[in-house]
Model the fold of this input.
Amino acid sequence: MSELGKVIERELSVRNGLGLHARVAARIAETIKKYDCTVILSKDGLEAEGDSVLSILTLDAPIGSRLLARAQGDQAEEALEALEGLFTNGFGE
Amino acid sequence: MSALKEKVLIGVGASPGIAIGRAMPLARRPAQLAYRQLNDPADVAKEAERFKAAVQATQDYLSRARDDLGKEMQDYAYIIEAHLLILKDKLIAQRTLDLIQAKKINAEWALGQAVSEAQGAFRKIKDEYIRSRFADVEYVTDQLMRHLSGEEANQLTTMREKAIVVAHDLSPADTSQMDLGWVMGFTTDMGGPTSHTAIMAQAKAIPAVVGLERVSQEVSSGDFLIVDGSSGVVIVNPEEETLLTYREKQEAYEIYAQEVLAQAYLPGETLDGQKVRVEANIELAEEVSSVLNYGAEGIGLYRTEFFYITQKTIPNADELYENFRTVAQRLEGKPVNIRTLDIGGDKFASSMELAPEINPALGLRAIRYCLKERGMFKEQLRAILLASAHGKVRVLFPLISGVSELMEARSVLDEVRAELDAENMAYDHRLEVGIMIEVPSAVAVADLLAKRVDFFSIGTNDLIQYSLAIDRVNEHVAHLYQPLHPAVLRMVRQVVNAAQEEGISVAMCGEMAGDPKMVPLLIGLGLDHLSMNALAIPQVKLVVRLTNCATWRELAKEALTFATAAEVAAFMTSQLKKHYPGMFENVVWAGLEG
Done:
């Protein structure tokens, strides 16, 4: 894995009223899939694969939760940038 | 004569009528999956290809079903979209492929393994709604297994003889692909009275029982079934005698359906000319056309919680307005009472980081929650006001406990009105405001409340729970839940008196209102609107039309003199037999069965 480049991290906070529910999880996964990298989301010791809706749902993240996103790959920076945009505007909700 | 033993299963009647015929169980994945170790690397590669082909076939099936979804089912397209997402989710598809390759095992076993891993993670989710969505994963898995087994077509699309469909759960994808002409009835493990299966079955007048929990396990191919969609009973391999009884019932139902349903269009009016509006309770806009078919004279209660529980996004005024306007328009001038949100924030949102409440029934819910979350409340009121330009819309506040709460809610409504005026938006300036009477304190001050609203609606389920201090779900006290308790009847009377004093209308919504044997007493007590589950409307209307209001006014006075629920029940039983010969044999009263 290490030859893929360094791991970059970013902290994200859930601001939309309903937390990471299905529709939001789908948007996160779709966004991440567009970039050439892997993203792991974690919260309180739980980890989820950023490109799997089902995996994101199991994070159980209501509003106010803080997540750590760890990305690795050629487009890691761009992916985290896009992800942060989604979280910051509360997924447009 | 049947060698097989008769079995009775109880579920939820979702579409009335009786179906008698052969069962057609839809295949689910077998509980015991075949296990094959693949020794040859070529076999492993082939197995992976076989799985990919099944994924593609399932995707084609679901996409086709989504495109074929009928107009009336468009609201359910999102369910199929979700299934497509799950199908492609790496926890399912990629994980299965990885397992096939790493463990050199067959696709079915690998898929089963991947799904149970996902299930393990889902079980830990605290949010009940999200946790329950695992049912969607199960559905997709069943479809994948079906395609893996080489079964090309869904059994439903190839039906060639009439049968009763038996399924764990039905997706709108399935029902859009079947030829309903062959379907005599539906029975499913999952689902409730407002599930899409129920709505579709009602629209097509096919008897259905849902929420049976185990029917897909209890019934096998070739079994003979009776489906009683009116009472929610399914009988597997009935004895000759049972069969005869139900054949008679079926015939009687068909006559009843023709006569009573025809009569259901007549107005709710007693023999002596007293108007009693018989209305429906609904949860979805899609229910409107079906409840009108049952003879509803309006919507006495439109519960709006569905948006908040299922969509998982707080709906804004535009979304709500779109929906409320549709309801108002479909009603073509008949009234609809739109109730503002009646749940606690804990049910759908984490927006306030609420700690779990020890006693949610007495906690921050309904109007209290809305008054705290003003922004959300105003969105609801704005949508209701805007919809009032398109039909007879009224607003209904739940759980009002006294005058100050009511005035606070009214002041928010006035604020929204002022905003709409400033924007020059159209709405009904005489929009009527009503409140639910379901907290005992509201009964005590009903005279004060009546001066400040346009109508009352008595919510008996909560009123009985709160005033008798009974949690119906608690089996140790459930028997004390007695609608005929003298305290309950006196409270209803007190509310009616207060309403009549001010000349406002008084409705009842709740199970009591839809119970035919309660109807004469309710009319006698002075209720002028009854709102209920639509399936109960034809029967209730029949009772209304056979009732002499003046007689029951006197009988209601007498009923109020008894000291116990048992005495009231005995009195009622004898009066019902006397005034409605043949209609109320063997009546049983809640809380008094023993």
Observations:
- The domain at 275-579 of chain B is CATH 3.20.20.60 (TIM Barrel).
- DSSP finds 24 helices and 16 strands in chain B.
